[in-house]
Specification:
Rossmann fold; 191 residues; homotetramer; alpha/beta; 6 helices
Chain lengths: 191, 191, 191, 191
Amino acid sequence: MVKLLFLAGSTREASLNKKLAVVAAKKAKDLGVDAMFVDLKEFEMPIYNGDLEDRQGLPEGAKKLKKLFVEADGFFIASPEYNSSFSALLKNALDWISRSEDKDEQPLSAYKGKVAALAAVSPGGYGGMRGLVPLRMMLGNIGVTVIPSQMAVPSGFDAFDDKGGLIKEGQQKMLLNLLQEFVSTTKALAR
Amino acid sequence: MVKLLFLAGSTREASLNKKLAVVAAKKAKDLGVDAMFVDLKEFEMPIYNGDLEDRQGLPEGAKKLKKLFVEADGFFIASPEYNSSFSALLKNALDWISRSEDKDEQPLSAYKGKVAALAAVSPGGYGGMRGLVPLRMMLGNIGVTVIPSQMAVPSGFDAFDDKGGLIKEGQQKMLLNLLQEFVSTTKALAR
Amino acid sequence: MVKLLFLAGSTREASLNKKLAVVAAKKAKDLGVDAMFVDLKEFEMPIYNGDLEDRQGLPEGAKKLKKLFVEADGFFIASPEYNSSFSALLKNALDWISRSEDKDEQPLSAYKGKVAALAAVSPGGYGGMRGLVPLRMMLGNIGVTVIPSQMAVPSGFDAFDDKGGLIKEGQQKMLLNLLQEFVSTTKALAR
Amino acid sequence: MVKLLFLAGSTREASLNKKLAVVAAKKAKDLGVDAMFVDLKEFEMPIYNGDLEDRQGLPEGAKKLKKLFVEADGFFIASPEYNSSFSALLKNALDWISRSEDKDEQPLSAYKGKVAALAAVSPGGYGGMRGLVPLRMMLGNIGVTVIPSQMAVPSGFDAFDDKGGLIKEGQQKMLLNLLQEFVSTTKALAR
């Protein structure tokens, strides 16, 4: 059974993107895959610095997160848009887990051969779609197959019901389509 | 058997990227797939203009090329870099074949669900890699799964032997790896 | 007095982006600059091909357009979005005029030191903003200072009145702000 | 006299990009401007989190850095490339100082109307140029005029002499040209 991670580029308590990642993970389980929501809050790590890495190796949070990525077949990222790009929090986590822990390790073992799906939600009218451009660009450059479909949810404060579900039927359907493409691509490419 | 197209973003007689597409097609055949080099020279079309399309529909060259794309499972593009982006020739062909010919046709039928691999060769030191950034960006936006690996061949005038083969062993190997990833991804995703 | 060109990436008769470029040129004149709308329709050129260039040099349309660019201090481009990128028509024109006509010419004389402003209008909800990403990227790479402000007009079929003016006051103001920044930047940087 | 900041996207002790920012600041002073090297190490800040901001406002490091940006006319960034993009350290600092501290403040006061120049140095053959693509994209989106010229220094471990100067004459000249364009653009656009 393929293993999929669902994470958000924000640790804010009421983060809209966290909500999106959580509901996506739930819906993915309904599709019969092993889907796990990963809250970056539980994987704290300092801002990446090469000297720090030389002295101490990967911080515990990065080691744990990297292990999840290495074992997963794909990951879904709900990414907030800060200044038209993705968050430092997300970049920092992605950078730390890109590092090898010993000489014999394959480079980019957290990423190579993996599949990713991207989504965003924002309070504004564009749904955070601008931030997905550099995220897609980066992931493609480090060996991840990013599926072409993606989802940007505008007017995010009105998008979710009390139980965290998407209110609009159209968006529910869009998410389902995205997840189906994500799951089928991951199944097809998993070795 | 999966069907793969190999094309170059140039119609120049001695085009380095044409050479790269030709040798890639040959090597792909050795991997046991249906690989076809497509010379854009044989698919002439005027520069896209909506009025022209309204009056005459797709030009013959575009119809023929689109048919090949619709029937193919994947395409390999060797793209020259003009002003840090890909050629107008390539953009024009890709735009024309993105158009639907009748109301019942699925939009983007030439692209949706297809797999692409990108490569470039240039006389300079960067091998045309800058032009692949916007090309990857565009294809991802229209439903194409672009595989993460790509290849940029620098010093292109010295890259090929008389028979059109890549001279450097490292580049031969890189092309082979790229093609293997391209073929396996296309096989996996072909429906 | 600074000289500014206003062009659209479409030659379609009823092109929304042509309308936007025309009204922008008119408003720029009101700001006391030499503003000229340039219809690419009057500068026909074949799709760029290196062999063609070797045999015949720049086609007449490209020579004329290049001359306008060389003499101008800045250019405003209203760019339609085709498949999330700008048009082949525009890329082709920009590529042809990037070419030198003789050995002593400075490379990229049409672009180096020039200022550009970007805008887009589309029938859809995003106003063609996605196509401006690769256009901005390319121009920055060839020596053009692209001003940070830009304008994307959604619901383009309802955006203009019978005389070609923008209907919404907010958009009129946005265009005016964009032009003021464009004019002041060009004046400041013109040598 | 225009005020220019010079910073690096790394706090590593022996950072090549820090070296590049330091030598650039020194050379800029020779051009008669107020040039200041800013070590991000002295502006520590936690990873951006909206809840944290709601509770405590900007951290001290961010306030101090923002003040420098607000007072400056331009900034030069030497950016290391991590996973084909810029560092989380840099993104984090740029995001924090993008935030307003009170309701009456103009949005993006650290950025609007400012000029930026980008550079990179890396141990590899491309000089970190890939990471400048998303950095340029982001800065352009938040109101910064990024000058078209940029500089990527390959083989970075062999690029500097004992005193921190660039060894190769060609690179010294390239840096000088970049700084001259940076200074003249900033002077022209400073209000």
